[in-house]
Specification:
10-stranded mixed β-sheet, alpha/beta, 28% helix, single chain, two-stranded antiparallel ribbon
Length: 312
């Protein structure tokens, strides 16, 4: 565990106790439901100060998961009620990024529209602007849904999730210079030779050569992000096995929150994850020099998340 991480658990007889479980150099983890935290006095001091809410709420899956997930209208109603309170937490140019997976109709090879319905209600309820849609592609994801993909062989495997970037304003803070990716070999060759095949393209766009010969120290990434989530020996997993703690079943790749934290915030800004799970977001924020707060309702996941702050 990080030398500056300290256990700060405070018990309360109140059923909806907001327990501050631990803190690190840059943030702290609360044990409670997200809705209880957001309605508490503890949340008040953060209102209007959060630069980025990055989170992955429970998906509307047909199979009931240990971390809790709702279905049908119950799901869309539950998600929509967070919109206004999330908005109130944001700094003037802050952003919300929600990861939302796909869902299927129970017992049928038909996709559910619940996630999309939930997103539209969330946007409307919070009077939020949709800045951009992202795809997170996991090439290593196992084939699912199993019945339609593996057994009946009538569908293709589902290997991506959506990330929806929203804000209260049309121009939230963002800087794509902070998330540039390495140039391809062909681009490096172009920059070296200064020779570019300019002129009209089939689309009738007339491409000049000058702008393509400027070295910007990297290429602007697309809104399709690729993270193969296959690791099994990271400090978090090793810590949980050593402590005999259950691993969170829906852990995200650490590169995902890192990308959005770098893109949508500056060092020293505050990042908030209200459905923290194993606290990938908090660990990413700490690594990148941001302050953070996280909330998780299951105590075993909170205890396990300490493994993300272990010293090597």
């Amino acid at each position: 565990m990080n030398g500056n991480a300290q256990n700060s658990r405070r018990e309360s007889p109140n059923r909806k106790a907001i327990n501050f479980e631990y803190k690190t150099r840059s943030g702290g983890m609360f044990l409670c439901k997200a809705e209880d935290f957001l309605a508490s006095s503890r949340a008040k001091k953060y209102r209007g100060k959060v630069q980025l809410i990055f989170t992955s709420p429970p998906f509307p899956l047909n199979t009931k998961k240990a971390y809790g997930n709702l279905r049908g209208d119950e799901y869309t109603n539950w998600l929509a009620k967070f919109a206004a309170v999330f908005k109130a937490m944001l700094a003037p140019h802050g952003s919300i990024v929600l990861e939302m997976g796909n869902a299927w109709e129970s017992g049928r090879p038909v996709m559910s529209t619940l996630a999309l319905e939930g997103l539209l209600r969330f946007l409307k309820q919070g009077d939020l602007k949709l800045a951009q849609q992202f795809i997170c592609y996991n090439p290593a994801r196992l084939p699912s849904p199993a019945q339609w993909v593996n057994i009946e062989r009538i569908r293709l495997k589902d290997s991506y999730t959506h990330l929806w970037w929203m804000a209260a304003t049309e121009r939230p803070y963002a800087n794509n210079k902070n998330v540039l990716k390495p140039y391809s070999p062909s681009m490096l060759k172009l920059l070296s030779t200064k020779k570019y095949n300019s002129g009209k393209r089939p689309s009738q766009h007339n491409i000049g050569s000058t702008s393509f010969l400027t070295n910007n120290n990297g290429a602007i990434p697309s809104n399709v992000l690729t993270f193969p989530n296959t690791g099994n020996g990271d400090p978090y997993q090793l810590y949980c096995r050593k402590q005999n703690l259950e691993l969170h079943p829906a852990r995200m790749h650490t590169g995902l929150p890192e990308f959005f934290i770098k893109f949508l915030s500056k060092p020293g800004d505050l990042v908030f994850d209200p459905f923290a799970g194993s606290n990938t977001t908090g660990a990413a924020a700490e690594k990148l020099g941001r302050r953070w707060i996280a909330v998780e309702a299951r105590s075993d996941y909170v205890r396990g998340s300490l493994g993300r702050f272990r010293e090597e």
